[in-house]
Amino acid sequence: MTGRQPPVDYIARTRAVYSSLGYPPYRWVANEPLASLAHTGKPQNEWRVGLVASGGIYALGQIAFHHRDDFSYREIARDTPVEDLRTTHFAYDLADSRQDPNVVFPLETLRDLAAEGVIGEVGANAYTFMGGIYSARRVRDVLAPALADRLVADAVDVALMVPV
Amino acid sequence: MQRDVVRHALDLIRDATVPGTVTELDYRWAPDDAWKDGVMRGDSRQERIDTPQYQCAEDASLADPECPTCVWLAPGVGEGA
What is the pLDDT of residues A83-133, one digit of tens each? Predict the structure, then answer.
């Protein structure tokens, strides 16, 4: 079938895949209530923007992520050349991210927007981790607070979260 | 396109008035939607190996074993290693 289709029904297909593998029904994480909305009070062109991405990005010289519930993170300096960025992940097609890491980690894009004056600057460091961690509790109680602490320490005004 | 997508995301952060706001952008992944037929029609995940998985072998040889920018977190309270 070609032409326009409705959005992919990921929930139904995830359930079907898990069922076909003999797993119990997939349990979706529900984070309630939603976090409250807070605005910076600054114009966008003064924002210091943080970047957090779950696509398994690491920089040359760093230890790569492993693929089995790795809940470590990597600190990547904002001036890291794109040529030094790498991706590893067990659950998405890496062909495009290895050709252009900006598709999962738009660090260079943010640098360009800062140079154009759209935002003030990029946070001193970006943070990356390995998505597909099966323990939602570890993400909620350990990884997410650690990343939040780093963003606060970097004094960013907003943080752009890029999942895969 | 990447620049525009990121720009839209930043504008959403600026303009959203309620949590959970979603904005649909006028971009298509491909000229038609045939690719959707094959999404998640089976388990395409790789084996979940618990050793570092480098993009290329050279990366492993260049990795700093002390890596000060690699942050390992202790398990949460009540969890095992």
Answer: 999 999 988 889 999 999 999 999 999 999 999 999 999 999 999 999 888
CB atoms within 10 A of CB B13: 19
Domain that holds residue B19: 1-28
Residues of chain A with Cβ-Cβ distance to B17 below 8 Å are: 37
Top residue of B39, B61, B71, B79 to mutate, by most chain A CBs within 10 Å, is B71
Q: How far is CA B14 from the centre of its chain?
A: 23
Contact A119 B64 (CB under 8 A): no
> What does the DSSP 8-state code read for residue A36?
P
Q: How many domains does chain B have?
A: 1
B5 domain-assigned: yes
CB atoms A76 and B69 under 8 Å: yes
8 Å CB contact between B32 and A3: yes
What confidence tens digit (pLDDT) does each residue in A51-94 have?
999 999 999 999 999 988 888 999 999 999 999 999 999 888 89
B46 with A91: Cβ contact below 8 A: yes
